[in-house]
Amino acid sequence: MKTKAAVLWGLHQKWEIEEVDLDGPKENEVLVKMAAAGLCHSDDHLITGDMPMQLPVVGGHEGAGVVVEVGPGVTDVAAGDSVALSFIPACGRCEPCSRGMSNLCVLGAAIIAGPQLDGTFRFHAKGQGLGQMCVLGTFSEYTVVPLASVIKVDPSTALDTAALVGCGVTTGYGSMVRTGEARDGDAVVVMGVGGIGMNAVQGARIAGARVIVALDPVEYKRSRSFEFGATHTAATVAEAQALIADLTRGQMADVCVVSADSAEGAYVAQALSLVGKRGRVVMTAIPHPADTCVDMSLFDLTLYEKQVRGSLFGSSNPRHDIPRMLDLYRAGRLKLDELVTREYTLDDINTGYADMHAGVNLRGLIRF
Ligand SMILES: NC(=O)c1ccc[n+]([C@@H]2O[C@H](COP(=O)([O-])OP(=O)(O)OC[C@H]3O[C@@H](n4cnc5c(N)ncnc54)[C@H](O)[C@@H]3O)[C@@H](O)[C@H]2O)c1
Ligand SMILES: [Zn+2]
Ligand SMILES: [Zn+2]
Question: Could you tell me if the CB of 354 is within 6 A of ligand 1?
């Protein structure tokens, strides 16, 4: 079939909106008609090369839609089902999956490879195969994805709200609550309150944190963070340090989630300076691949038992945590509608990303 998709043909180029060919679903695959897709910063890392992926690629890894057709062997979902797409495929049976770490499923190796799990392409244009970001490619009217990435959601769920739980919401919430283990009464900091960080703020609020500092250089992000549960804001690390020291009588924070637009070695030391004894620094932002140097106090690490933890999808299990996020939303505890600042058509995707860089969106959303 033909479908309209946003394709990235080379580094430092814009998304090209074009009609491309899409094969039908093969074994254990599902054809989905997309309803909405979120504009996560990670797709922008494909353009800068911070996310090293073979190009060309159909972008997008956050979205929800309706199943149109299933391939051989698919019995869990059927045509007409509402589904959210998880940016991490989870098989449910590999070693990490069976240990409850399905965010680290062995299938994850494919998410920045390009082709589908079987090594072949579903999208084609100009005589060549197009990869799919995170084996999804949600910046397309239709896409074919592995069953392992498909999470069936309650049919009453509005698909624009379900779109964001496949990456941003669950990653941010999980970074704070699952990886960072934030608890009631804690003091926490979120470094970078965009689409991911705002959900770390919500996670902290839901976990019962007493001090939640939103640290971001952009005034708009800081001012909006109060709606999601921030108790204080800071524009710089120095400001956050003074604030946290004052609010905790010098004990400092229990958790600092780093969810800035990209991760830099220097941020590790900055985040470590904000946490206290046995404090956890959670690295969620995607780093520059060549950045291998971190300058930090090893003395603090050992003598204060400070910890640095990496976080992929907020250490969440897609099949458990995606429905959990939607349950929290339905219970009025988790804000999803308020996260979407602006909606775009697929044709306007480059404007959406320009707005993300300008700092005027918590999350931009493509509505198909
Ligand atoms: N680990 C994962 O599983 C995972 C999943 C999704 C996204 N990510 C990554 O998380 C990061 C955030 O993504 P997003 O979609 O929220 O991006 P975003 O652009 O919406 O938000 C980034 C925020 O960081 C702020 N910022 C920039 N520099 C800062 C600094 N030095 N200190 C504090 N704040 C700063 C920006 O003003 C912005 O508000 C990206 O690197 C993205 O690739 C990681
Ligand atoms: Zn994402
Ligand atoms: Zn697995």
Answer: no
Of all ligands present, the nearest one to the C-alpha of 44 is 1
Near ion ligand 2, which residues have CB within 5 Å?
40, 42, 167
pTM for the full predicted model: 0.98
Neighbouring C-beta atoms of residue 68, cutoff 10 Å: 17
Q: How many Å separate Cα 312 from the centre of its chain?
A: 9
The enclosing H or E element of 129 equals strand 128-132
Could you give the CA distance from residue 367 to residue 163 in angstroms, rounded to a whole number? 10
Contacts of 14 (CB under 8 A, 6+ apart): 350
- Strands 275-283 and 253-258, by their bridges, are parallel
CA 38/CA 60 separation, integer angstroms: 8
Q: Does the Cβ of 163 fall within 6 Å of ligand 1?
A: no
Q: What span, in angstroms and rounded, lies between the C-alpha atoms of 83 and 153? A: 5
Residue 295 has a pLDDT of 85
Closest ligand 1 atom, residue 262 Cα: 41
Q: Is 191 in the pocket of ligand 1 (CB under 6 A)?
A: yes
> What is the structure's pLDDT at 86?
98
Burial 147-186 (b: 16+ CB within 10 A, else e): bbbbbbbeeebbbbbbbbbbbbbbbbbbbbbbbbbbeeeb
The pLDDT, as a whole number, for residue 339 is 97
* 363 CA: nearest ligand 1 atom: 20
For ligand 1, the distance from its centroid to the CA atom of residue 18, given in whole angstroms, is 28
Q: What is the distance between the alpha carbons of residues 307 and 280, in angstroms, rounded to a whole number? A: 5
Mean pLDDT in order along the chain per 10 residues (368 residues)? 98 98 98 98 96 95 98 97 98 96 97 96 98 98 98 93 96 98 98 98 98 98 98 98 98 98 94 98 93 89 96 97 97 97 98 98 97
